[in-house]
């Protein structure tokens, strides 16, 4: 049998459905691959060998009994450690949750199980999903399979690295400011942020609740669409979940693969026309735009003047929400507890626990957010940022009157070497310059590989109106039909 770890999820599912491979064989092949390379890549924080093989056996039993299998039955998936899975360690990349085994499944994990996918384990991430390089994980960084001395993006670097290292054909990420798309871009994989509310936040450890969006990561656009369909849709357990069916992303990906974009209007955002981006990234992006034009797409230039304020607005809104959300980690209810010796007071235990349990970036965000929400400063910071958010939403609404989707590079720079942006927080924040507006607006965005710069992957971002996720899959699949998938050097 050919090496299943090199196959797409679609191909693997077909093998299993056709009886050419068992789910157990497919799972074992991926577990073997993880055993062979993950000491160097470090994509996983926890590999659930027993749970994965048990899930695989259940799929094989279903097939043997002649039961109907879903389109992803038996396909392995790696899950970002921000989502709970019953009984499986969930750390969010933080020491404060070390040893915590949640008593319940997140909706995403529950739906993954219902679809018959096989959860291989939990992937590495920046602590509490704050970061763009995975260097802020309390458990050490993840390497980019294209060059192990470089970052795989963040915060979901583990999920994207697992795909690029052929440790998993599918993965789940979460995107608050770019944490699915930016790791996708710098690892040469596909990452999609669904419409906010299109995928459930139930069981997703909260960072910034008005922005957090779980979503699919894969090596192809169609695989991402299949995963999106499996995890998406209304969930009564999440109060901001949208009560509407998932847009038909799978049909859109299939249609786009035909390579015809006749009549599709692609909006080039004037404010993202290259300032602040590496020349090699812009060159790959422009070549990809030419390729899309040859498929029949029409290019229109759109101006979104408030996008330049997206980054500062985000760094007020996200830390504000984080300072509130992270108050629950008090050393009493979950995970780590320090100083519980009968000598220290309750307040001291909380303070000692937080000091030991949170890393420097998380502490910075809590302090920033607490300040932005404090009496006397609230209107000037948090209130002002919310007004900017409204202006950005208006920019999107106006732009979508002229264009069906907006496109830009996903990130201003290719994968950077470890340590090169950790000394200046702002340099790290810039990684999400092009992805953050989408989060503030709430619409969907996808990153699809569009070429190389200096031998490293470049991603093209496609942004669509809210609940028009299908549009970005159509354009993404069309781009993929020209560019193909990117193959990293052998590890
Ligand atoms: N890099 C951004 C941040 O640090 C976005 C993170 C995310 O999307 N989770 O906040």
Secondary-structure arrangement, i.e. CATH architecture: Alpha-Beta Complex
What do we call the CATH topology?
Amidase signature (AS) enzymes
The succession of helices and strands, N to C, reads HHEHEHEHEHEEHHEHEHHHHEHHEEH
Oligomeric form: single chain
Number of helices: 16
- Which whole number gives the mean pLDDT? 97
The end-to-end span amounts to 21 Å
What binds here, in terms of ligands, is: glutamine
Structural class: alpha/beta
CATH homologous group name: Amidase signature (AS) domain
Relative helix content: 25-40%
CATH structural class = Alpha Beta
Largest sheet data: 11 strands, mixed
Write out the strand line-up for the largest beta sheet, numbering strands in chain order.
Answer: 1-3-2-4-6-5-10-11-9-7-8
Strand count = 11
Low-confidence stretches: none
Radius of gyration, in Å, reads: 21 Å
Shape summary: globular
Number of domain units: 1
Strand content: 5-15%
Structural overview:
With 491 residues, this protein is an alpha/beta fold. It has one domain: Alpha-Beta Complex (Amidase signature (AS) enzymes), CATH 3.90.1300.10. 40% of the residues lie in helices and 13% in strands. The protein is built from 16 helices and 11 strands. It has an 11-stranded mixed β-sheet, with helices on both faces. A hairpin with a 2-residue loop joins β10 and β11. The longest helix has 24 residues. The relative contact order is 0.14. The site of glutamine (GLN) has 13 residues, from loops.
